[in-house]
Design goal:
Layout: H1 3-17, E1 22-31, E2 41-45, E3 50-52, H2 58-68, E4 77-81, H3 85-90, E5 98-105, H4 110-120, E6 125-130, E7 136-140, E8 148-149, E9 153-158, E10 162-167, H5 171-182, E11 185-190, H6 194-197, E12 206-208, H7 212-219, E13 225-229, H8 234-245, E14 251-254, H9 258-272, H10 276-279, E15 282-283, H11 295-310
Parallel strand pairs: 10-11, 10-13, 11-12, 13-14, 14-15
Antiparallel strand pairs: 1-2, 1-5, 2-3, 4-5, 6-7, 6-9, 8-9
Length: 325
């Protein structure tokens, strides 16, 4: 679930409170090169104003035209686009792509208010819609759950599905945090150095108190968690990396030159008995090799490598050449 979809619900709630009719549209199935994934959400106001997207193309235009023409649905219903190559071309879908959508009138706003409150408290929430009645129920969800649609009920997830723990609250960490939030990561920052922690100014980022190794243990990183050490202080970074490399985190990275990374691996192997397999999980120098120089550019390279690992994309070169000695 993307944070964009939470903004869609926020807009839909404001519109309903202002007295507008609102239709929610959710992508439930795609074939071919559909541009938006299952679970993507769109809200269409009664006058045609929209928030979010389901295709990024002419499908939105058609939905807007239907609403402005007075077309309404009393209960949730299915709608399909791009079932033929000709229709796919008409609606701006890639060749052969098609979409199945569920459209529903937004009546009771109680579930929207509750869902937004729970996700604001960093909960992962499953929303289940029963098509025959329009009934909506909310339940706590786990990170291994996915969107489910069986033709009768539609369950979608809302909230932070991916987490990034940053060790260090300096300028680079803050740049990484801002970019990671844009791609729907819940960002946590741990830095026991008060002179750095007090300057953390990234709205939405969660400050984790205590020492970095304790923070990693308490977080219990799983396959949806990345840990990146950016203090450049071995006393802080190494202990956090020790815990992270033994965890289920899908990505573990550390700032530093190739020479410093080699020394770090020697320390971790000699003093903490990390295995070669565990040490090989460390991305260091951290980030993709894009010739980055400034903190913002280095942050781009770091987040890009995290996304590469998250999506299991293989690239010819993944070592970074942008880290500080």
């Amino acid at each position: 679930m993307e944070s964009l979809d939470l903004r869609v619900l926020d807009d839909a709630l404001a519109w309903r409170r202002a007295g507008h009719a609102v239709t929610l549209v959710t992508v439930v199935e795609t074939w071919g090169s559909a541009p938006r994934p299952p679970g993507a959400l769109l809200a269409v106001r009664g006058d045609g104003v929209v928030s979010g997207s389901v295709s990024g193309g002419c499908v939105e235009d058609d939905l807007i035209a239907r609403v402005k023409a007075g077309e309404r649905t009393a209960l949730p219903s299915m709608i399909a686009y791009g079932v033929s190559k000709e229709e796919a071309a008409r609606f701006g879908l890639p060749c052969g792509g098609s979409l199945r959508l569920v459209q529903e009138p937004l009546g009771d706003i109680g579930w929207v208010e509750q869902l937004l409150a729970r996700t604001a408290a960093h909960e992962l929430v499953a929303r289940t819609l029963t098509l025959a009645t329009g009934e909506v129920t909310l339940a706590a969800a786990s990170r291994d759950e996915r969107m489910v649609f069986d033709g009768v009920k539609l369950t979608t997830l809302f909230g932070p599905c991916w987490r990034l723990l940053l060790i260090g609250a300096g300028q680079l960490s803050q740049a990484v945090a801002r970019i990671a939030q844009l791609i729907d990561f819940e960002v946590l920052v741990c830095d026991p150095r008060e002179e750095y922690a007090m300057t953390l100014a990234v709205p939405g980022a969660i400050r984790v108190p205590g020492m970095p190794d304790d923070a990693v243990r308490e977080l219990r990183p799983d396959a949806h968690t990345a840990v990146v050490a950016l203090t450049h202080d071995p006393k802080l970074d190494d202990m956090a990396l020790l815990e992270a490399l033994r965890s289920g985190a899908f990505y573990v990275g550390a700032l530093g030159s190739s020479r410093n990374q080699a020394k770090r691996k020697e320390r971790l192997a000699e003093h903490f008995d990390l295995t070669e397999v565990e040490l090989d999980r460390l991305h260091g120098p951290v980030g993709l090799r894009i010739g980055a120089k400034t903190p913002a550019e280095i942050a781009v390279s770091i987040v890009a490598q995290i996304v590469e690992c998250k999506n299991a994309v293989s690239q010819p070169v993944t070592a970074a050449g942008c880290c500080i000695e």
